[in-house]
Amino acid sequence: MKIYNTLTHQKEELVPLEDNHIKMYVCGPTVYDFFHIGNARPFITYDTLRRYLEHSGYKVTYVQNFTDIDDKVIKRAQEEGTTIGELSDRMIKEYFKDADALNIKRADIYPRATEYIDAIIDLVKLLEEKGFAYTSSDGVYFEIAKNPNYGKLSGKNIDDLLAGASERVASKEDKKSPLDFVLWKFKKEGEPFWPSPWGEGRPGWHIECSAMTRATLGDTIDLHCGGVDLVFPHHENEIAQSECATGKKFVRYWMHNGFINIDKEKMSKSKGNFFLVRDLTKQYEPMVLRFFMLQAQYRMPINFEKELLDAAVVSWNRITTCLDNLEHVAKSAPETDATEVAKNAVQELERAVIVAEEKWNRGLADDLNTADAIAAIFDLVRAANIATSVPGISSKALLKAQDKLLELLSVLGLDPTRSEKNSVPAEIIELVERRQTAKKEKDFALADSLRDEITAAGFKVEDTPQGPKVSAL
After folding, report:
1. Which of 29, 111, 67, 27 is nearest to 205 (CA)?
2. What angle do CA 407, 410, 414 make, to 5 degrees?
3. Cβ-proximal residues to 96 (8 Å cutoff; 6+ apart), any chain
4. Tens place of pLDDT for every residue, the chain, 473 residues?
5. By the 8 A CB rule, do 256 and 173 touch?
6. pTM
7. Residues 6 or more apart from 118 whose CB is under 8 A from it?
């Protein structure tokens, strides 16, 4: 598999440090609120990557952190009159509700920053011993001037950064350089704190991820993943402090997904143009949201707007309807092909299965191009729809195509059985049965009236040689 490495700005063959074992760290949420659609994109993207790697035969150790000590967490806990621990516990439970709905597999390890304070302190001590950290009046800082490689991930130049910093209002922080970032913050009134060799306080954001990565996966890992907004300063600072502390390469491959735009404008909480996954799943099925995300290659920006989501609903229903048709027709199909036409149709379907899987695999192996993988799935859907219309085609061939469709979807984390629209209410089934009786009795006016009633309820009924078939519109 080839992936685009942000560090080298090119696609590279993914070769794990340990044979057949990939160590993977994904930046998780800051747990002070429900997660929004921008957070959902990396969670879905790297869950899909993990699934494909495991499908390809790799063992994957997947770590996703929870940031449970942060200015936002502290502020929200104070507003609610609760502790950061109580707030974090509650929001982590809520995270899992939304993540489970989106079919995001559980990570192997979920480190929480507050559980790794000793590991964070050890890493800061190591940086201090090696001359990369210094103590000021308000905390312990990493000295960027001591690291000539700073900026290698983002491509940013230190002189340009310093020039930009000098144009901003001077900080109250007592630092050697405006670019130096905090490793340990001394305690402030009303904030949680822990003891340390430098005084009571709490960790800075960047050091948390470096320490948790090191504690759970080791000094050098294969993959570090997150949104493009984390390239600078978060991931740049992670590289600086991790490599200066250990003297080893921190991450071999860096992956970053693109932004989400809301109605063609960059999503931003400060602008108020963002959507919580919790709210969106009241309007759209979680599988539709996941499918929508995967329609674009992960490095490309996504424009999030109602018309495109509605189009995703239609496309997803094409897939689920095809699967329903395959199962429905197979129930009454012969075990072997009844005619020469049916035999030819089976050969065409079998070829379509092979070609679609090859195209699907090429797409995912080329920097996780889920757009190409989904296009391959629709190729197979078209072939399957043609096959179900051929009289006498064997059930074995149809069910084999169904199994392959389900397999390809499963690797993308798309599970049609989770769709609420797959269940037809009992009252709709009753209307379908009444309509069938009316047709037998040649009461076509009543049959048409019942069809209209079914349609008005959001379902459609199709007359097939195997009997009526009902599905959601």
Report:
1. 67
2. 135
3. none
4. 999 999 999 999 999 999 999 999 999 999 999 999 999 999 999 999 999 999 999 999 999 999 999 999 999 999 999 999 999 999 999 999 999 999 999 999 999 999 999 999 999 999 999 999 999 999 999 999 999 999 999 999 988 888 776 555 455 568 999 999 999 999 999 999 999 999 999 999 999 999 999 999 999 999 999 999 999 999 999 999 999 999 999 999 999 999 999 877 877 766 777 899 999 998 999 999 999 999 999 999 999 988 999 999 999 999 999 999 999 899 888 888 778 898 999 999 999 999 999 999 999 999 999 999 999 999 999 999 999 999 989 999 999 999 999 999 999 999 998 765 545 566 777 788 789 888 888 999 999 999 999 898 888 888 876 567 777 67
5. no
6. 0.88
7. none
For tokens 């621990």, name the residue: 85
What size, in residues, is the chain?
473
